[in-house]
Write a structure and sequence with these properties.
By secondary structure, the chain is an alpha/beta fold. Helices cover 33% and strands 11% of the residues. It has a five-stranded parallel β-sheet with strand order 3-2-1-4-5, with helices on both faces. The longest helix is centred in the first third of the chain and has 15 residues. It is globular.
Length: 178
């Protein structure tokens, strides 16, 4: 089970060289945890096929910026709540097999600013330190960024395992303090 993009290269190597199957995803949110459990069950039963996610080509309403697997779990939780046009962006490495159309590995702040200032964007879920790059009125939900050495506007870490992501996301979308 690969829960972070950083372990994917090793998993692919082990599959190629030793035939060790793997599944990808994080158990963050009920939908992602259920999907991950179903994938593990398929592998246990000898089915190593990869389920391809579906995505409509639309301009994004929501940007989720962070580590790819975590951002994908947040996207899945948002889809369960009716948000369809969610794009995942990351300054970290991203695996093409885990990307949906429109997802992007960012190479700099200018790329983030261009994405974040698109007229269709209504909500951004990301490190609050990126907010000065956004020149339009959007709703912002802060994500902790463990990779930031000196955050200006730190967001406290929180537990996203299982239904805790759902609880956090529901509260944030309602504007409540968790």
């Amino acid at each position: 089970m690969v829960v972070n993009e950083s372990g994917l290269r090793l998993a692919k190597y082990m599959q190629r060289e030793f035939g060790v199957p793997y599944v990808t995803g994080t158990p963050f949110g009920q939908a992602a945890a259920g999907k991950l459990l179903a994938a593990l069950e398929r592998v246990r039963n000898g089915d190593s096929s990869v389920e391809q996610p579906e995505s409509a080509q639309r301009e994004p309403e929501v940007l989720v910026v962070g580590e790819q697997f975590t951002a994908n779990a947040i996207r899945l939780a948002l889809a369960e709540r009716g948000w369809e046009a969610v794009r995942v962006l990351s300054f970290c490495d991203m695996d093409r097999g885990e990307m949906l159309p429109g997802d992007k590995k960012l190479t700099g702040e200018d790329e983030f600013a261009a994405q974040a200032n698109a007229p269709s964007v209504r909500l951004i879920i990301a490190d609050r330190d990126y907010s000065p790059l956004v020149k339009q009125e959007v709703r912002w939900i802060g994500l902790p960024n463990g990779g930031s050495l000196s955050p200006v506007n730190p967001t406290a870490n929180f537990n996203m395992a299982g239904d805790k992501l759902d609880t956090w996301l529901d509260a944030e979308l309602k504007g409540e303090i968790v």
